[in-house]
Please model this.
Amino acid sequence: MTAPTRLRAEHLPAALGLTVTTPRLGWTPPAGTSSQTAYRITASNGWDTGRQESAACSGIPYTGPALDSRSRFEWRVRTWNSGEDGTETPTGWSQPMTVELGLLHATDWTAQWIGADEPEIPAAGERPGYAFTKTFTLDAAPHKARAYATAHGIYELFINGRRVGDQQLTPGSTSYNTTLQVQAYDVMDLLVEGSNTVRAVLTDGWYRGTFGYARDAGMYGTRTALLAQLEVESAAGRQTIGTDGSWLVSATEITSADLMAGERVDFRMHDGGSTLSAGTAPGARPAVVRPGGFTALTGPLAPPTRVTRELAPVSITRLPNGHQVVDFGQNIHGWVRLSQLGAPGGTVTLEYGEALGPDGDVTRDHLRPHNFRAPGAFLDAGQVDTVTASGAPGGVFEPRHTTHGFQYVSVQGLATGLQPADISACLVRTDLERIGTFSCSDARLNKLHDIVEWSFLDNSCEVPTDCPQREKAGWTGDWQLFIPTAAYLFDVTGFSRKWLRDVRADQWENGVIANISPSPGPAATSAEFMAFTNGSAGWGDAIVIVPWEAYLATGDASILAENWDAMQRWLGFVRTTAETQRHAARAAQAPLPAAHEQYLWDTGFNFGEWMEPGGPEPDLFAARTADNGIVATAYYRHTTDLMARIARVLGFAGEAAALAELSANVRNAWETEYLDAAGQVTRASQANCVRALAFDLVSPERRATVTAQLAGLIRDAGTHLGTGFLSTPYLLPVLADNGELDLAYELLMQDSEPSWLAMVDRGATTVWELWNGIDARGTARQSLNHYSKGAVVSFLHRYTAGLRQAHDSAGWERLVIEPRPGASITSATTSHQGPRGLIEVAWTISAGTAPEAAAFEGAPDDGVLTLTAMIPAGTTAEVLLPGRAAAVVGPGHHTFLAAPGGDSSQPELMRSTL
Ligand code: RAM
Model:
């Protein structure tokens, strides 16, 4: 019997340690049903909703007995669905999902914050890991045991020599001043009656290690600390073992660990604590109890970080200098696992990089940031680990307290020849579920899709990052550009909610959204630009665009509600800036402002389009006073337009009307200021034309002129794109939507620089920050792993394969299926696991002689397009095929035939089954 599947609590597939007392539940209706008419939830704690007449399958608030710390229940759901003939049938009960709460109150903690006494703290990047150990006795075998742990730093927990859980980089990255995640673990299987040893290893991590472009250290504090509490239930009652002054602190084999610099391990210092079941380490001393708060502690909102994949080397090359260069064939984020450690006492160095220099060895030169403390100089790129073997058999090096972005590792100081089985690359990332796929008949486009996915896999560790090596930072602009693409391919709901919580926490008093979240605020960073560049159009607007996209993906309006206040404060900053400031150049031209100027945002720092191909090196200091009004005002329009729609969703009718009016005024101001009498964009660039069309900045009658201008600029550039960060995602869609589909495909298939396929042809395995990240001479420039330009693959999903949501649909309730074939592509297929179930679209074009074509009356010479679509329960799809009237279909499998350039009045619906 069918049953609902994919049960979720707070959008999470596993819910241990939640700290919300009314978790919202959801499920996916069974395939093969047309719509849900009612549901019933029952739970192990007696909660029973009874039959609820409702089509809702997500966002169902828990309404059972009050939940408190440690509360646990298993819930199941069954639904009633209407079948093909309209009759109602019940489903079976779903598999159960367990929800368990963590510790909700400060008073739940008997544990104390502890740390190591550090009479002298080594320089940042040189700081060792500490072990905290406690041996205790359990009077009886446990029947339930939980560990709750967090840290100021990065911790790993071991019980009786076995690692607790498979999460990495715990407690994860958040804005620590306001939010610190606590992990809850089921540790029953690790404990025994009698003597047990719990041990934690603690390093600097994001809390006090170096981090980001400027390599600042100590951003959240100068002392690391651990908080852990074990709660064990047995026949002897409940026993709690919490961190306190009775724990012992000792040195570890980690002689230094830093997220940017790398990790050094000397296995001769290994005290056995992670593998011995009992005993205290030599040189151990009592831990120091630190004052530490409990208010920032919280459970998970996002899935945890794990090693989700391992890659074997594709080649190992020994260079004349003895270095062995391992190529994993793929740019990846994480670390290596190395089991060939060399002679006892000898040190092996691992240098990680994305590119090779002319000597065939790893180069990190292109990843070195400017040193703002010494203008003209550069900082070290970091990413170097060392390991010293002890000679004990079975030693494995896996630096779990740092991460790197790399395709290659130069292994130095190892006399033995490395074999492929000796080393692998571990992908470390938030364990996001894949929910979308795409492929088509063109191998290079499939490769492009693949490298874009990899860039996201590599930049989704804890927060959406700009790049996994040089900065690893949660840049707002990058995520607002890429979330529509990411949300199609992966479930990024919890991941985005977690990040938005930091974005809100990091918002400035005046409404400015910090460029990077999590971040401790500009006062904690040394580089001047880290302060004045905040508040840029296209970056700050992430507070509006990201919740909006997460809402569209899920239909969960609470994501909008959570961020509404922060959106308003951001808009307040933009609006005040626009209304009270005029750009100096404008003021010099005319002392009195024209009426429309109150709607122009043309002052303050703006990144502008950022990284246009062939453009000058970005000058942040010049951008401080430059007039970027044409970009910033466009975002002012876009943000007010989205906020008007958001207000409508939230039921704020008055605000919606006011925002729509403001948005219309900004739009008119943009048109007045930035279009000339002939209707051309005055600051002619592809980016500005794209925005004019994408953000609806020009009157309908002027769109054709701007489209022609954009097409002209593209042709003038030899049919090459000329866009940078902000407008690249919109480039092909606006062409396709404005009658230039063929030109969109010409750009997509262009393979000379700048283009996406030039990256593919030059061997990219991830998307580059610069269009010429590897230039024609083969030299690497800047990061080779920035996903933003990869947002183009949304075009493949939405236009090539032809699956998108209807304009005002959220949660994939109403679909539009409209394949827009081009570029000699003969087939495409895409799938998306939406909140209501799996959506699949596939089409092929077969020649006029193929059987499908023969069956198709009047089969034209250019073949027949066969489209199949699977539509989940509770969903409708409008099917638009070339030259045919729209057809609306509901749940089920459908097959259509059409002529790619046909002119019949109806799509031929061949088959439909539920
Ligand atoms: C770079 C980052 C990021 C971008 C900013 C403006 O340093 O890598 O991608 O958003 O600059």
User: Anything to note?
Assistant: The mean pLDDT is 95.
